[in-house]
Amino acid sequence: MREIRDKVRWFLKDNGMYHEDIDMDACCGIFMQEMQAGLAGKKSSLAMIPTYIEVGRDIPVGKPVIVLDAGGTNFRVATVYFGDPRQPQAGAVIENFAQKPMPGLDKEAGKEEFFATIVEYMIDIVDVSSSIGFCFSYPTEILPSKDGRLIRFCKEIKAKQVEGELIGQNLVTAIEAAGYKAKSKTPLRRHSGFGASATSNRAKRVVILNDTVATLLAGRSAFQDRAFDSYIGFILGTGSNCCYIESNRNITKKADLDPSKEQIVNIESGSFGKAPRGAIDLRLDESTLDPGKYTFEKMFSGAYLGTLCLKTLQEAGRQGLFSKTTTEELLATEDLETKDINSFMRNPQGHSPLAMSCAKGTELDYTAVWYVLDGLIERAAKLTAVLLSSVVLKTDKGQNPCVPVCITAEGTTFYELKSLKERVECYVKNFLQDKHGRYIELVSVENATLIGAAIAGLTN
Question: 10 Å Cβ neighbour count for 278?
Fold first, then answer.
């Protein structure tokens, strides 16, 4: 077994894919330099997008809000209201939930089709509230009005006509074009919470925010009785991103900000362009719809990790790490998803595509494939720790272990990929806590993006 492990290690090293070759201090230093440059409006791979969303505003009790959540492969709609925080049943109440496919996922969608599809998705709740919190998880320039102009789509979404457009404004236009007037007197749909007999008699107001921002807001709301030094929102699912709270005085690319206040900054960390990529990372990047963009998240996020693992296994087969039969099976495989990687790691002799490929070879193929995948998951954990550590160090918060930085984490890849979360926590403890004296607490909030979008829609 040791011989196989050593062969895999040298294979990963030779291809620039080995986790131990990542210098965390060096990577974090470069990441923070990119953050600073982005805040100053200088050339940077990190957009550092101001959201104009502040934290700490009171959430109105019993007031419903429409919530939309666009990200990855799914589009979710719901209505939300909040109970009185002084009562036992306090917290968010989610109703009228529905999940639909993301427009533009399977085929190119024009602008009118894109927004008309969203209106169709929300047709049963469009008159519940005049407030809409829209969690829009793609690179978007947020305006002081809280509307957002889409910079570009990622995660393989195909809707080029929407790029450069105002999301909120176009959505309101599409709602009215569908026959729902801005001052509709239509009674509310069924709503069992407070204010159920009200009517939506004001023009729709749409607040655009990113899923990481929504996650941060949800975490801050859910743990109000816990003392934290600051808050971070982190996503590792289909894609990956991070946001944090920054002082306005440090956002020097915006001249009209009140320096005495703070706001959430969307890092767009998936676009970090100075991570140490290997030969197979470069090969994967060239095969995507947007080569050269979002190269960091292509190294470890759910939309890409399955393909990266497949390309790595195919190269390992070409270099003689597996039997001829298993190599032929791998080279004939056209697609692997991250869930397939997870299935194999949890049960190598099971019924996953990789297990079936290994079954046609030798017993040692299972072991060699496992070591390759394990190495890539270990690297994913270390890169994730680089991201989180960089953001904590940039804030200069969390120096008191009794008042740590709260990181609200979301995403199926982070929580479900075998051993990933535990390895991230190990890297963060060894590097951030033991070496740099910074303390964090990782938390999760059920339905965080829906709750955070509701908070943004109600308080902005």
Answer: 20
